[in-house]
Structure formats: structure tokens, C-alpha cells
Amino acid sequence: DTAVSQTPKYLVTQMGNDKSIKCEQNLGHDTMYWYKQDSKKFLKIMFSYNNKELIINETVPNRFSPKSPDKAHLNLHINSLELGDSAVYFCASSPDFNEQFFGPGTRLTVL
Amino acid sequence: AQSVSQHNHHVILSEAASLELGCNYSYGGTVNLFWYVQYPGQHLQLLLKYFSGDPLVKGIKGFEAEFIKSKFSFNLRKPSVQWSDTAEYFCAVKNTDKLIFGTGTRLQVFP
């Protein structure tokens, strides 16, 4: 039933580790996004894919690498995690670059 | 570049009080505007949206917003808030293929 799902919901890891967050949508949308929400609730777009093609890359460090195996999935891999990567990461999808449907978020804590 | 300003960072109200949250955007052309709500510990959900037509838009849970082109504003209103409206509220504007979010307004409603 879930429209946009993310796993895991919580992720606690040490600095320097590599981790992945997965996102899946069953809405049939062509476009998917990754956002980072910091401790002050500021929401910033990181990446956007349309039909598996990268269309937005917002000056994100290249330690972050999105991968879209098909248009229903957009995963986020993060290498060499740093303290400043601690945040809530939201996946979203959209049918038309307008209204976006958000996933439940993944709270990443880097120790 | 397009931007969105939400000048009220933190609003505290008693139940039954009226609410108005400010949102101003920078772009002077045709705009698509949104208000999203994020309840504590949850993901963003769409409250309402404006694309064209009647500048007074009604959304879910008794919220409405008014688009005033001359003022570049899209303020959110509710005549009588409830404790359950306690949440973070985000205004957003569409910029080509992505949404630009404001910094959010934290609303606390006390019984």
C-alpha cells in the first residue's frame, strides 16, 4: 500500500563507513528525488532522476552517489561518511515535476 | 535564482486561535506554489497547491492559502487551529524541474 518507501528508517554508523539507503515508489511516477533535511529542518534537494536518468545534481560531494536501477527505485550510496552527513534523508517521487510525494525518511547518525 | 522566504520561524498559539503563516517567493513569472506539512517524526505531506485560477486555494484539514501576485506572496491560513496542527510547515515554489522549499515555520499549538 505504501506509496514511497525507504529503508532503513534509522541508520547509525561510524565515521568513514560506507552505507546505502534504498527508496522505492509504486505510484508509477517517472521522477524521483533525494532530499537532505538538516537539524534545523532545512530541506535541500540533492539529486533528481527522470526515467533512470540523472537530471539534477545539486553540488553534492561526490561521496554521494545515487543509482536508479529502474524508474521505481532510487538508491543513495554514501562513501566515507562524515559527521556532517548526519541528517534525515527523504526520497520523493513526482509524476510531473510538480507535486511531490515523500517517503518516511531515513535518519542517519554518524558517530 | 528563485527563492522562498518564510519569515515566521516559530509560531506559538493557543487552540482556537487563528493562524497565518507568511510565504514570499522571488520569481515574477508564472509560478506553481505549494504548502507542505511535516508532523513530528513524519514525512512531508501536501496541504494545498496553486497552479492557476482562483487565487484562494482550499486544502486539507481546514487550511487555505491566498496567492497575491502583486505581493509575491502565498500565505497559509486557518481560522481556528487545533493541538493536532502542531507541526513544521513548508512553503515551496516550482522552479523548472524541482521544488524550492522555504526554511519552514514551526507551529506549536497549546491546549
Q: What are the main properties of this structure?
A:
heterodimer, A: 111 residues, mainly beta, four-stranded antiparallel β-sheet, globular, B: 111 residues, six-stranded mixed β-sheet, 0% helix
Describe it.
In chain A, 0% of the residues lie in helices and 57% in strands. Chain A has 111 residues and is mainly beta. In chain A, the strands form 2 sheets. In chain A, strands 2, 4, 5, 6, 9, 10 and 11 form a 7-stranded mixed β-sheet that branches. Chain A is globular, with a radius of gyration of 13 Å. The mean pLDDT of chain A is 93. Chain B is mainly beta and 111 residues long. Chain B has no helices and 12 strands. In chain B, the strands form 3 sheets. In chain B, strands 2, 5, 6, 10, 11 and 12 form a 6-stranded mixed β-sheet that branches. Chain B has a 4-stranded antiparallel β-sheet with strand order 3-9-8-7, with no helix packed on it. In chain B, strands 1-4 form a two-stranded antiparallel ribbon. In chain B, a hairpin with a 4-residue loop joins strand 8 (64-68) and strand 9 (73-78). The model of chain B has no long low-confidence stretch (mean pLDDT 93). At the A-B interface, strand 5 and strand 10 of A face strand 5, strand 6, strand 10 and strand 11 of B.
Question: How would the blueprint of this fold be written?
Answer:
The complex is a heterodimer of chains A (111) and B (111).
Chain A (H helix, E strand, L loop, with lengths): L3 E4 L2 E4 L5 E7 L5 E7 L5 E8 L2 E5 L6 E7 L2 E6 L8 E8 L6 E2 L3 E5 L1
Parallel strand pairs in A: 2-11
Antiparallel strand pairs in A: 1-3, 3-8, 4-5, 4-9, 5-6, 7-8, 9-10, 9-11
Chain B lengths: L3 E2 L4 E5 L4 E3 L2 E2 L7 E6 L5 E7 L5 E3 L5 E5 L4 E6 L8 E9 L2 E4 L3 E6 L1
Parallel strand pairs in B: 2-12
Antiparallel strand pairs in B: 1-4, 3-9, 5-6, 5-10, 7-8, 8-9, 10-11, 10-12
